[in-house]
Design goal:
By secondary structure, this protein is mainly beta. It is about 10% helix and about 50% strand. A hairpin with a 7-residue loop joins strand 27 (about 610-620) and strand 28 (about 625-635). The longest helix has 16 residues, at about 25-40. The model is unreliable at about 1-15 and about 20-45 (pLDDT under 50). It is a multi-pass membrane protein. Keywords: Cell outer membrane, Membrane, Receptor, Signal, TonB box, Transmembrane, Transmembrane beta strand, Transport. Belongs to the TonB-dependent receptor family.
Length: about 725
């Protein structure tokens, strides 16, 4: 098994190739390349580097993606995308096929809403409350992969896609870097990172501060958004101790603190005809002062161990996530929405995850493991509303709930023939939170290397997705009866777990050295399909179910890498529909509920056509002063909006182009302490094309949002 890991395939500097997840994971290619490079450059500690590389390979083998579709981003690919390490993680993922962008920094993969799990070095992070916060920084990743399709049984809970980030560490990222990045719209983005190794210890940390006026998408097509200041602080750190050649302990910790102003929409009518006299101090809708604060803290402690034919990694982790919304202090929210509320939510998640690989024979590898999350959700709000006598009254609501989700699995990776790999297994999942449910889920994937350079795959997965824990309890509805915040519908059934049958098949072919093409098709049949929407002024997403759901589509991807030139292109078609809303009904209009109960509708995040493309060329790439120019494109046919039926319309299509110019200088200052100096110029939305992400209408859609207009940013970074 380890011998196969030394066979390296070319990785595109802009975007790594799509692969069908055979027994050699794409992410390991990047890791191995990094390790080999560092051994050559720093031969003073070859033994430590060899142990690090071997343990990294063993960790990746704990969670193969046999049969899944994997889109890998090497470290070079992350640096090449416009913005480089300064780009948000979601901006990077938009370069993969089948990924559609939405407001608040959300992405939709293969027609699902936010069902994307994030893993750090193979350990899954529990869900948090962050909507438009960016807890995980691109510069913390040594490489990352996005896995979709019929996933093997080790992946549970959130299964639209798995983003697995291999973090930087002090063994392969020695030294430091400081940078300053900024430009238009008060954008100011200083950052620092440093890594090193001392004996058996190695460490790496990175921190940054973001100040800008583009924290949330503009609610108007204007060049600058009104009332859109944001301040964000991030820290991520990695500490490891190598006990011996077979044992390693690691700690990953992160902190994110972000404050946002919510953009305004001018010219809006008040909630009631007489509210102007009842609230004479209320500002115009274009002058509201609404704010939101988000905090996320997490820690992961892991033990990795090799024992003969067994490999294991066991981890304990904890994540705290909170969100606080502050309404306009002059009762502007009450004037325009009939309710003004200070709202707070928090989720504390603690759990453990263990994964074990047993290499029984060369043709059989058994894997098994489990995950358990214990969660505590607290919700409270102090609201001001009008009663039937047009008097202001205060209503306090709050509740706390403790629950758990769990899953365990076993699978066998079997090679009945030298060119055929079968991965089959069972997974058992359960949830005990707002709902108590469980399911036994079989899964199977087959990969056939039919001829030279070709890989065909097909798979079936049974999925069980617990509902998001941070949902609104129906008991609060009665307190708002006969007030300006009363709902049209009083029913509030519990959000239930989603259960899916998922089918996937595809082919990947190497046309020429460095040129790959792939095609993939998928179909999901869902019961109690989970969707999410924003209801009210706070940017808080709440879950609900469609009794039936269908998602299907296909993807085409190609990439080429040769010398200084790299090119890639992705094209995807998708359809996502649902019928009959069966939970959290109070959030919806009664006429919409009646129509949806009898008719299939498009999901609000259904985008029929999605495409991305990019290229880069490096001048003087063999010299110490390379010049790299790169460009990317993102196309969307538009998410949904209301017409004469819910979600019956389509937002206008758009295409945006971004470019980047990076000049590097090695040893510019002729100092033994200063290494590479880098200057960069990035332009987002090069042709300043105004485009809409959301119109403000649709099932579970809040305010309108527009994409970022042309933004020019520059930066300088210095390695040492």
């Amino acid at each position: 098994m380890l011998a196969a890991m030394t066979v390296l395939t070319p990785v595109s500097p802009l975007v790594a190739q799509t692969t069908t997840g055979t027994d050699v994971p794409t992410t390991d290619t990047t890791t191995t390349q990094v390790a080999d490079t560092e051994v050559t450059r720093r031969s003073s500690a070859p033994d430590a580097m060899t142990v690090t590389a071997r343990l990294d390979r063993a960790r990746i083998q704990l969670q193969p993606s046999t049969g899944a579709t994997v889109h890998a981003f090497s470290r070079k690919a992350l640096e090449t995308i416009p913005g480089g390490d300064n780009a948000g993680l979601n901006s990077v993922l938009l370069q993969a096929p089948g990924v559609a962008q939405d407001s608040y920094g959300q992405i939709h993969v293969r027609g699902d809403h936010n069902e994307v799990q994030f893993r750090l070095d193979g350990v899954q992070l529990p869900e948090g409350l962050n909507v438009f916060g960016q807890t995980l920084m691109t510069r913390f990743a040594d490489n990352l992969s996005l896995s979709t399709g019929a996933l093997p049984v080790q992946y549970g809970f959130l299964q639209a896609a798995v983003v697995d980030i291999t973090t930087k560490n002090g063994a392969t990222n020695k030294g430091g870097n400081v940078s300053i990045y900024g430009g238009a719209r008060d954008y100011f983005f200083p950052s620092a990172q440093y890594g090193g190794q001392h004996g058996r210890w190695d460490y790496f940390f990175t921190a940054d501060y973001v100040h800008d006026r583009v924290g949330i998408e503009n609610t108007t097509p204007s060049f600058n958004a009104p009332h859109d200041l944001s301040n964000q602080y991030h820290f991520l750190g990695h500490l490891r101790y190598t006990v011996d050649e077979n044992t390693r302990i690691s700690l990953i910790a992160g902190v994110s603190n972000a404050e946002y102003q919510l953009p305004n929409i001018g010219g809006q009518p008040m909630f009631g005809d007489d509210y102007s006299s009842l609230l004479p101090q209320a500002p115009g809708s274009g002058n509201l002062n609404e704010r939101q604060k988000e905090i996320t803290d997490f820690g992961i402690l892991s033990l990795q161990k090799e024992i003969g034919a067994f490999s294991l990694q066991t981890s304990v982790f904890s994540r705290y996530s909170s969100l606080g919304y502050s309404p306009d202090p002059n009762m502007g929210d009450l004037a325009y929405m009939g309710i003004s509320q200070h709202a707070e939510r928090s989720v504390m998640s603690t759990g453990t995850q263990s994964d074990v690989t047993w290499r029984v024979r060369p043709d059989h590898t058994i894997r098994f493991g489990f995950q358990v999350f214990a969660e505590r959700n607290i919700t409270k709000a102090d609201a001001t509303v009008f009663n039937d006598a047009d008097q202001q009254v205060s209503i306090h609501t709050g509740n706390g709930r403790t629950g758990d989700i769990y899953g365990l699995y076993v699978q066998d990776e079997w090679r009945p023939l030298h060119n055929v790999t079968v991965n089959y297994g069972l997974r058992f999942d359960g949830v005990g939170e707002y709902t108590n449910e469980h399911q036994l889920s079989p899964r199977i994937n087959v990969v056939w290397r039919a001829w030279k350079g070709a890989s065909l795959h097909a798979g079936y997965s049974r999925y069980f997705t617990p509902p998001p824990f941070e949902v609104v309890g129906g008991s609060d509805l009665q307190q708002f009866a006969s007030t300006s915040a009363a709902t049209d519908v009083s029913r509030s059934d519990t959000v239930k777990a989603e259960r899916d049958h998922y089918f996937d098949a595809g082919i990947e072919q190497i046309i020429l050295p460095g040129w790959r093409v792939s095609f993939d098709a998928y179909y999901k049949l869902a019961h109690n399909l989970i969707d999410e929407g924003q209801f009210g002024a706070p940017i808080i997403l709440s879950g609900f179910n469609y009794r039936r759901g269908q998602v299907n589509g296909y993807e085409f991807s190609t990439s080429y890498d040769h010398g200084p030139l790299s090119l890639y292109g992705n094209f995807a078609w998708s359809r996502a529909i649902g019928k009959d809303i069966t939970s959290a009904q109070f959030n919806f209009d009664s006429d919409d509920l009646k129509y949806i109960s009898q008719h299939w509708i498009h999901l609000d995040h259904d985008q029929r056509w999605t495409a991305s493309a990019g290229g880069s060329y490096t001048f003087f790439y063999r010299s110490g002063h390379p010049t790299r120019i790169s460009a990317t494109m993102v196309y969307g046919s538009g998410l949904r909006q209301d017409s004469d039926v819910p979600n019956g319309g389509v937002i206008p299509r758009y295409a945006t182009f971004n470019m980047s110019l990076v000049q590097s200088f090695r040893d510019l200052f002729h100092s033994r302490f200063l290494r590479t100096t880098q200057l960069r110029l990035d332009v987002t939305n090069l042709f300043d094309h105004p485009y809409m992400l959301r119109s403000g209408t649709g099932v579970g859609v809040g305010a309108p949002q527009y994409g970022l207009r042309r933004t020019i940013l520059t930066g300088i970074s210095q390695s040492f």
